[in-house]
Design a protein that fits this description.
The protein has 100 residues and is α+β, with helices and mostly antiparallel strands. It is globular. The mean pLDDT is 97.
Length: 100
């Protein structure tokens, strides 16, 4: 079984350039979790390319063995500062979790 966790964020910023800077900051903080959190099986980040201003700006796709793996990621000491960062640089968040 694989649990897929997808999160999309609307980033703070009036211009595409400001949101690009926030996206780069988020990617720099989140991408290392792929290697530092043992329960992460796969992790990728994707910047929105079309319909700027209408779509969410950045999406995370992460895979875990199960809900316990996701919970371990959520509470991992290296993930906690990322949560604080994302709260500061985002204006909205949506998420979905499902089994593949």
């Amino acid at each position: 079984m694989t649990l897929r966790h997808i999160v999309s964020w609307r980033l703070v910023g009036e211009t595409r350039e400001e949101r690009d800077a926030r996206a780069a900051e988020a990617v720099d903080a989140i991408a290392p979790l792929r290697d530092s959190v043992p329960s992460v099986r796969a992790l990728s980040l994707h910047r929105n390319e079309l319909f700027d201003g209408d779509n969410f700006d950045l999406t995370l796709i992460a895979d875990f063995d199960d809900a316990e793996g996701l919970a371990a990621y959520a509470s991992h000491p290296e993930h906690l500062p990322v949560i604080d960062l994302m709260k500061r640089i985002t204006a909205g968040r949506v998420a979905v979790d499902f089994t593949l």
